[in-house]
Each structure stands twice: as C-alpha cells, then as structure tokens.
C-alpha cells in the first residue's frame, strides 16, 4: 500500500496531529502506539503520518489503518562520506514538501518519533509556529533532536538523566511506547512453544536483530549452531530479509539431522512477537530503545549486542545503561563471534542468573508510555485552544 491523499475537515475541536518519522520498526511501532492512544482518548481526532519515501513506514502505517504522505529525504551515510554530497538538496526538498503538507492538513501539533522524515517535518512546523513534540527513544540524544529541542513544546524521554541533552523544563520522562499486542497478551511458555512446534521442557533462545536483522549476530549463531544444538538449545531466529535465504539453505543442508528442523525455527520477520517472547528463556537482541522497552515489559533475560554504526553510538549507551543496572548482559559487536554462543549457553544453563536479570530488567518497565504521551499532547492542545478562545473573546469585547 502506498501514499494516500485525502481531504481533511477543519474542525479545531477534533484536533489534527501529524506523526512523523520511521525507517525501522523501532520508530514505526511507537508511532502507531501513540496514534492509537490518541484515538482512544479522543476518537474524532485526525491523524496523518509522514514518512520517508521508500522506507518501511510506507508499508506498515497503511497496514495499521492510517493515511501517510512521504518526503524525499535520506540519512547521512557514515561509512561513505562522498555519498553525502546530495544530502543538502534532499533536506531542502523535504522541508519544502513538509511545508506543503502543513498547508494541506493544517495540524495543531506535529510529533517526531525519529527517523529521516522526523527532522524536516518538525523543522517546517517550528518555522510557522505549530506546536512540536519530540519523542526521544534513546539514552543518548541525536544531534538533530538536540537542535530541534530549543523550539519544541515538549520532549518525551525514555531514560533518566537526559537533561544533559535537553532543557529540563521541557522534558517529561514517559518511557517508550510498546506494541499493544505485546502488552495485551498473557501467553504461557507451553502454549507459545506449541505455536512454534518446540519442546517446552528445553531452553528456547529468541535471536532477533531488529526488523532488519543483524549480520554479525546471524554469523555467530550460524557458525556455532552445532554447539548450541548439542546443548539441547532451541532457537526462534529472526534473520532479517537479507540473510534469510542463506540461513534457510544452511539449515536445509543439514536436513538429515532431524533435530535441526525440530530445534530451529528460522524466519525473516516474526509477526507474532508476543508468542516469541513468551516462548523464550533468553533473548539475544540489538540494543535499540524499543527492543529494550519490550524486554523490560516482558521481563526477559537478555544478551544485548549494540549495533556499532548507530547514530552517536546510541545503542551502546542504551545497552551499557542496562548492564550497569545488572538488567542485561552486553557483548560488543566486535566480540560477538567469540563470546555470544558461550554467553547463551551460560545463561540457558543457569536459572539463578536468568532470574536475577529478569528481576532487574522488570524494574525498568513502563507499560503506559503511549497513554502518558497522548494525554499530555491532548491537554496541551485543549489549553492552547482555550487560550486562543479567551484571546479572541477579549479582543472582541475590547473593540465593542
């Protein structure tokens, strides 16, 4: 499904909100969670998403039932600097496109959740005096959000100690929104294992490198697969689209060893994460903020392998924060080949270590971040509408 154009009613009481950003599931899922929370609190609210052309949100957002428009924007290439020559052109073009969207939709507020489309949309809104909200998901704020924060109405943060990046008076610690399907489900390990055709009596490891997969994690697991199998460990393995075919062929090549098929469930993308979490005794994951929020809510013992090329190395900051609170184990991407599989086996065979991690990570869980964000935005809109009404009334009385 692609970009949708539609006409919008101009009722100020209903409220019109733009939610901008995306690129990965880590930005898209919280954006949709915020949209749904806004609708639950105010059913007649009008919501428009704005994403980056060709990115994941252009498919996922319409699937969730929301209209979306796109900007011609791309991110900075941190490994090939010469590819950034055209970046100023794309930034300028996307800001002009954002202005057209603002003119068409006439929003009362714009919410940026991170990702390529977030910056031009928030910047354009701030230029014309529209209220802007930043949802900063990570424990280390990106440069764009730090710059935009100066004119932002509020900044919703997920971690304590963010005043080193943002004005303290604008900040609100809300946590990160988590997918409702994960929050709502109450599935036993036995039931989840039946769904994945696994043995509930044996340890299950969920390997998930984010919506795009993680090559270094995939290689480490693939190269040590026989070692894992020999310890009776079962895998639910989200490979990402790029690695899926290669890994599936590798598993198929060992088809004569029946336990490979029985113990390993490989898929490019896991649709039912609630069941995957429920089945798992241990989770191996990148350290994106939303992945961490889900692990906290699900209270899962986790081994975090931060993606080393994330902007401002924010995943390392996220993972280190949990490791310092004994809420997760952290392995650097450069050490994943030699350390990951041994850490998996260590955790799978030591119930006390798993229990300790589960208790500590559970203390960091915030289950209603989406509702807290939505309530604050709607309260601000009502206050702003009331102030404008009073101002108009005062002017009318004055002139009469």
Automatic annotation (TrEMBL):
For binding UDP-N-acetyl-alpha-D-glucosamine, which residues are annotated in this chain's numbering?
A: 24-26, 138, 179, 211, 270, 315
Give the enzyme's main class according to its UniProt record, as a single word: transferase
* Catalytic activity entry: di-trans,octa-cis-undecaprenyl diphospho-N-acetyl-alpha-D-muramoyl-L-alanyl-D-glutamyl-meso-2,6-diaminopimeloyl-D-alanyl-D-alanine + UDP-N-acetyl-alpha-D-glucosamine = di-trans,octa-cis-undecaprenyl diphospho-[N-acetyl-alpha-D-glucosaminyl-(1->4)]-N-acetyl-alpha-D-muramoyl-L-alanyl-D-glutamyl-meso-2,6-diaminopimeloyl-D-alanyl-D-alanine + UDP + H(+)
Keyword Isomerase set for record: no
Q: One Pfam family of this protein, by short name?
A: Glyco_tran_28_C
As recorded in UniProt, its EC number(s) are 2.4.1.227
**GO terms classed as biological process:** carbohydrate metabolic process; cell division; cell wall organization; peptidoglycan biosynthetic process; regulation of cell shape
**GO CC terms, sorted:** plasma membrane
What CDD domains would the database entry show?
GT28_MurG
State the name under which the record lists this protein.
Answer: UDP-N-acetylglucosamine--N-acetylmuramyl-(pentapeptide) pyrophosphoryl-undecaprenol N-acetylglucosamine transferase
Q: Which organism is it from?
A: Thermoflavifilum thermophilum
């Amino acid at each position: 499904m692609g970009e949708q154009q539609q006409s919008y009613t101009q009722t100020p009481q209903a409220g019109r909100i733009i939610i901008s950003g995306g690129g990965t599931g880590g930005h898209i899922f919280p954006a949709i969670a915020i949209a749904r929370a806004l609708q639950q609190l105010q059913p007649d609210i009008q919501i428009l998403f704005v994403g980056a052309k060709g990115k994941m949100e252009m498919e996922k957002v319409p699937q969730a039932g929301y209209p979306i428009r796109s900007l011609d924007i791309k991110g900075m290439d941190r490994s090939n600097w010469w590819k950034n020559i055209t970046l100023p052109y794309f930034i300028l073009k996307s800001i002009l496109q954002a202005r057209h969207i603002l003119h068409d939709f006439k929003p009362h507020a714009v919410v940026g959740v991170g990702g390529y489309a977030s910056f031009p949309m928030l910047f354009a809104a701030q230029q014309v005096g529209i209220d802007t909200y930043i949802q900063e998901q990570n424990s280390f704020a990106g440069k764009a959000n730090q710059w935009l924060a100066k004119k932002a109405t509020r900044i919703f943060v997920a971690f304590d100690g963010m005043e080193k990046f943002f004005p303290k008076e604008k900040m609100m610690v809300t946590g990160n929104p988590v997918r409702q399907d994960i929050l709502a489900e109450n599935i036993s390990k036995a039931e989840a294992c039946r769904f994945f055709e696994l043995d509930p009596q044996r340890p299950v490891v969920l390997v998930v490198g984010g919506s795009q997969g993680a090559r270094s994690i995939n290689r480490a697991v693939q190269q040590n697969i026989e070692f894992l199998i020999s310890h009776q460990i079962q895998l639910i393995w989200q490979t990402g689209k790029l690695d899926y075919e290669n890994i599936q062929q590798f598993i198929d090549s060992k088809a004569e060893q029946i336990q490979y098929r029985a113990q390993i469930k490989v898929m490019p993308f896991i649709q039912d994460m609630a069941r995957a979490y429920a089945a798992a005794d241990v989770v191996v994951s990148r350290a994106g903020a939303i992945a961490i929020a889900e692990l906290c809510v699900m209270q899962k013992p986790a081994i975090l392998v931060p993606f080393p090329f994330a902007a401002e190395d924010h995943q390392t900051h996220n993972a280190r924060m949990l490791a310092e609170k004994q809420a997760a184990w952290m392995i650097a991407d450069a050490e994943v080949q030699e350390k990951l599989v041994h850490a998996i086996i260590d955790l799978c065979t030591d119930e006390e270590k798993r229990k300790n991690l589960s208790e500590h990570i559970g203390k960091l869980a915030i289950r209603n971040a989406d509702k807290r964000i939505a309530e604050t935005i709607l309260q601000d809109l009502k206050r702003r509408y009331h102030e404008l009404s009073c101002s108009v009334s005062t002017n009318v009385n004055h002139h009469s």
